[in-house]
What we know:
By secondary structure, the protein is of the alpha/beta class. It is 33% helix and 12% strand.
Amino acid sequence: MKNVLASLVLVVSSAASALFASGADMLVTTSWLAEHRGERNLVLLHVGLPADFEKEHIPGALPVNPQDLAIPRTEGALVLQLLPPDQLRAKLEGLGIGDDSRVVVYFAKDWVSPTTRVYFCLDAAGLGENTSILDGGMPAWKAAGGTVVASSGDPASAIQRKPGKITVKPQPELVVDLDFVKANLTTSGIAIVDSRNTKFFDGTDPGAMPRAGHIPGAHSLPFDTLVTDDNRMKSPSETSKVLEAAGIKPGDTVVSYCHIGQQATVVYFAAKRLGHKALLYDGSWDEWSRKPELPIEKGAVEKIAADKNTPEKNVAENPNKAIAKP
């Protein structure tokens, strides 16, 4: 019996190791970037304010923000909606990205959720297998002794890249709509996950939205509980515990939402890294709260630790500043 149990433990451990290994390339370290930065097919994307990029960035990087890859907003429209596949492909090709590109996305300061949003856009374009996030962003790069330059001293960032050619199949199905969410509120194996701060989830604060509360039956998993104090993604084992505490079971399809579909991409990234099928409700609370005929719930959740009050919470106060201030 002991041998049987030992074998079972070995199988489970091996499966877990394989699961975590499958997502290992979603994050790269500063040492990996230092080793590969000069490679021809590497595309570095810097996520942050334009003024900060002008002041300093990793040599050869190109500036980008989530709004560049979103439908231009018009009065009354939803905020930060993913571009249609053809338009998204054209935008990415304009950054010099092609089928053979190795893309690394990093944040300038503490823009974790805008960076995962850019990652999500690349994933939806069919480029997820070739895309990673630099763990810890530019602060980690600088702490490790990596070089940064101003735009005036970096000809590579000023030169217009030759457009890339993307022929891989896009994955617009990674975005789910309102009807999908309504149809799966109680579906076994599908976890609707609210990525906002708990004060928005429990309805204490409506933020800038028409109504306060959350989608009925949603799990509360504030996005910043998946990130360390120095803005690195938590380890797979730590992440697994956070998801478990939020009531998300192994094998669940994780459908994340937030205010406008930005913070939810941190949950998307973390869930995918653990091997979950991950989807994004891009309309998020921005859409759901506008429709008075849709039900809402209010109430506190005790399972999730208190939030860390990171700067990214400010998105909820004014969604129009979602790109300018994460």
